[in-house]
Amino acid sequence: MSNRIIECVPNISEGRDRSVVNAIAGAAVGTGCRLIDVSSDPDHNRSVITLVGDETGLEQGVLRLVAAAVARIDLTRHSGAHPRMGAVDVIPFIPVTDTTMEDCVALSRRVGESISEQFEIPVFLYEESAQRPDRRNLAKIRKGEFEGLAAKLADPAWAPDYGPEVPHPQAGAVAVGAREFLIAFNVNLATDNLSVAKRIASAVRHSSGGLRYVKALGLALEERGIVQVSMNLTNFRKTPVLRVFDMVRREAERMGVLVLESEIIGKIPRQALVDVAISSLQVRSFELSMILEEGIEEAER
User: Which of 78, 82, 168, 206 does the annotation list as catalytic?
Assistant: First the structure.
């Protein structure tokens, strides 16, 4: 693999059948494309797959992944707590090393066009790849989910960026785009009262007056008999993980509910956890060189 590294994090609508998830994730692996993580959740019925590689490797790998997913996932039989509109629901590209956002936008558009041509799936471009400002927001694109997709596509205002103006019968549609690092961060609560999770999500998310760079939903984890505040943190440098967690905990305590645990889905940048440690310990004059592994890596360069 070249020194040019892009991260790609396809989200697929299967989180219960491990053999299906493994087959789909494994299909992406090849020259220039490496699989570094698979996180599945049975209540969400969704898996987050993390790939890294160069443009050529990822382009080939993602198309193989989509082919495997289309062959194995039928959304007419799918149910889960997490919103979804596609068998492969979303495919973001993130610049990591020796690449730019412009590189990722170009890659996302090539991949999106190829998906529409090879699999006859409607493709929406979102975030930095969006060709219209009203399509930057993934939640807005996905609103109505798979079940409402046919009616949505029938509206000329929601014609896809690529592909047919009708859903794929089993695979729905897919959002493809380029973005900065996103941390999928969930907080599980010691209650089965879904209204509590929804009220906390409303308090913490930016769109309803909460923290900037936070998207949040309240979801029920029925298998565990608890509820969850499910969040995407879109800029951990400006809205740190610890600040988000503390606000969720305070809101929960205000309603007489305890936090059970938090979850990180997929990979998280090292700096985000370093920032948590610095804030929690109130470390003075902290530098990354103070971390043992950082010193070892620097010495080996």
Answer: 82
Residue pair 124/131 in contact by the 8 Å Cβ criterion: no
Q: Give the whole-angstrom CA distance, residue 63 versus residue 115.
A: 7
The phi-psi region of residue 256 (left if phi > 0; otherwise alpha if psi is between -120 and 50; otherwise beta) is left
pLDDT digits (tens, 9 = 90+) for 68-84: 999 999 999 999 999 99
Q: Write the CA distances from 14 to 48, 103, 143, 243, integer angstroms.
A: 9, 29, 19, 31
Q: Among 271, 263, 185, 259, which Cα is nearest to 226's?
A: 259
Verdict on whether the full-model pTM lies above 0.90:
no
Q: What is the CA radius of gyration of the chain?
A: 19
Which CATH number applies to 5-178? 3.30.990.10
Task: Give CA–CA dist 268/37, Å, rounded.
Answer: 11
Q: Which amino acid is at 232?
A: N
Beta pairing class for 11-12 and 46-53: antiparallel
pLDDT in tens, 237-247: 999 999 999 99
Dist CA 280 CA 265 (whole Å): 22
Active site residue 206: no
Q: Which two tokens stand for residue 18?
A: 């491990």
Domain with CATH 3.30.990.10 in the chain: 5-178
List, by residue range, all CATH 3.30.70.670 domains of the chain: 183-290
> What's the CATH number for 183-290?
3.30.70.670
